[in-house]
Target: F-box/LRR-repeat protein 4 isoform X3
Amino acid sequence: MPPVFPMLTVLTMFYYICLRRRARTAARGEMMDSHRTLAPNSRASPLNAELVQYAKEVVDFSSHYGSENSMSYTMWNLAGVPNVFPSSGDFTQTAVFRTYGTWWDQCPSASLPFKRTPPNFQSQDYVELTFEQQVYPTAVHVLETYHPGAVIRILACSANPYSPSPPAEVRWEILWSERPTKVNASQARQFKPCIKQINFPTNLLRLEVNSSLLDYYTELDAVVLHGMEDKPGLSPKTSSMDMNGLENDDDEENDDCGMDTLNKKFSSAALREWPNNGYFDKLPYELIQLILNHLTLPDLCRLAQTCKLLNQHCCDPLQYIHLNLQPYWAKLSDTSLEFLQPRCTLVQWLNLSWTGNRGFISVSGFSRFLKVCGFELVRLELSCSHFLNETCLEVISEMCPNLQDLNLSSCDKLPPQAFNHVAKLCSLKRLVLYRTKVEQTALLSILNFCSELQHLSLGSCVMIEDYDVIASMIGAKCKKLRTLDLWRCKNITENGIAELASGCHLLEELDLGWCSTLQSSTGCFARLAHQLPNLRKLFLTANRSVCDTDIEELAGNCTRLQQLDILGKEREWSVQHL
Model:
């Protein structure tokens, strides 16, 4: 006798499988740690001695505290032997990311988070390092010199950046990961996570960090890769214990990142149509959609393979209004975009940050996707998407007429002329150009045509010749501006600040950190206090000219001020006037 409610049974079984997988995660992590500690017991033969290497160079990163024209506090300090370790403290010779703590997400410029972000993806920043020789990793040591504990994931890549020919396949494997944890001590430490063995040699590692639990900036000094030239063998005891754990662990990684695998399974699935759908026939369509809205993207793709009714719900474009693909950067490809394309005709928020590097996404693949899915786009996140070129920005400007939010943070490979196309996006309200090569002419055009801007980030844009001209244009054209990031703007003066303050009375957030050409003696900071009473965040980092009078003016006029950074000022006690 057939079941009375077959569709309810299918969904119940699906949720049972999901819950069972998640319940195994904690136990598996504990089991894997105990399993992997056996790996160092295997002895290398004299012909396969363990190699110990420091990073040769830093090839990519998402942010850093330092300047693009300096070595102080930059990611480039991770290359080579330690500069500081084992000493503890704040040293300019270390690598420092730009943010720490939770205050960054509480600023007026903070963006709303994407829905359906997998709970195990909590990376905020990353850095990629190359080593001289490919090895099978046996250990990775991270030398942390100040406020350790930010590293939450280490990955290895099969591609050799120094190979003259491109690889036929590029794979990323997670060597180690854990959720953010609080480290109470701020002293230096040599972090030695228990890593997983992989079946390919590597000389390219990626460290991902989450600094939300830190009380101050984390500082990294060096990364050490231990490994064998030949694949190390496992003892019989280790093999018998590890195989199930490793296979299950790999399945979890594929669950989170294996977009292409899901595509193939879906395209070949034979979907069954039940004679009746049980209680599902009585549920409103919208209610089923609401239930499915709690699934992650891979889970949604899996459920689509169960039957025709759930396939219809899982492929409904309304399930993809907000699409966050950043957690799947390691496997997202042209094939993935092509697979998702029919479902994304109504997408409004799209996050492709960190994706497409090393040939995973092509210009043509990205262009095809936007030509079908770009019209309804309101928000587009493309941070560190190095596949982008001028053609891509041209396609964005043509296919996304309703775009209001564009993030090109750390897209430092985009040529300067590409930014001319951004000026065509006249509806923009938020534009992030941190660490890009935008030039003054293109930026002036953007400011002239994008008068609706409310949030603008120009931090570390080193190609701009005269920031006073830019500030004057912002004051004249961007009357609705609420937040402005001018971090490390090299030549802005009191004249630019005067033009800015007189035209942008709605400013709530202003970052003038490391703008060394601003001097308190000109009255520029007092002017800010008088003309910008709505300020909630003001950064004057490393400006030693800030005086007590400036602090008193801010305290008296900016009554909504919540964040004031005068770090680097000798008499920092003056902040108590607030």
